[in-house]
Amino acid sequence: MVDNQHWLDRWKENRIGFHEPAVNQHLKTYLPQFAVPVGAPVFLPLCGKALDITWLAQQGYEVIGIELSQLAIESFFAENSLDYERVESDRFAIYTSGNIRLLQGDFYDLRNDDLSACHFVYDRAALIAMEVTDRPRYYEHMLSIIPQASNMLLITLEYDQAEMLGPPFSVPTDEVIQNYQTAFSIDLLEANDIIDERPRWRKVGLTALRESVFRLESCR
Ligand SMILES: C[S@@+](CC[C@H](N)C(=O)[O-])C[C@H]1O[C@@H](n2cnc3c(N)ncnc32)[C@H](O)[C@@H]1O
Question: Ligand 1: which of 67, 109, 124, 211 to mutate, most ligand atoms within 8 Å of CB?
């Protein structure tokens, strides 16, 4: 079972194959399409220590991330040579450095007043970190905490779930549409077979792996 302890253990044991050594290319390519006003808050669910955080901050946005692991957050600041302030609230430890605010705690403890005025959500390796049984709760909670007007760039993976246990989990496009279509108009920006770029997963048994990039535009 992939519970919170699973993720804390992965960080402790440095089993973080999901961490990308560079800023995500889809984020760089598609962010301009969203026309997010400079200075606006943007939200990164389950943010890890992604380099995307600093990149978004450098573009002039106020970055709000939520991450379970203290180790992940403190590694992020150390590896980016950023000083931070840490304060504890009733629900989170809040780390602030310039226009970056990382909340250490559980995504499901977020409330909509934590994300007020947020314009843009960037979901890379967050939805796909959730098991199929947990995803209804994830979609529902996401829609309850983000402001109605916010748009989202969502990156998913799809493969035969019988070939690998996950995480990452396979999230079918139909599922994304079913769960988000009441709130967003959904545009599939690109879908690519990326198995040749992930030899590690071919080794564990995957025969095909599709990465999909969605633009979700608020219609609420
Ligand atoms: C697959 S990683 C992706 C991290 C990041 N988005 C990236 O692109 O590198 C998923 C992350 O979500 C965190 N996480 C898992 N469940 C969480 C929860 N309920 N609340 C907050 N963070 C969570 C894990 O600790 C892990 O760092």
Answer: 67
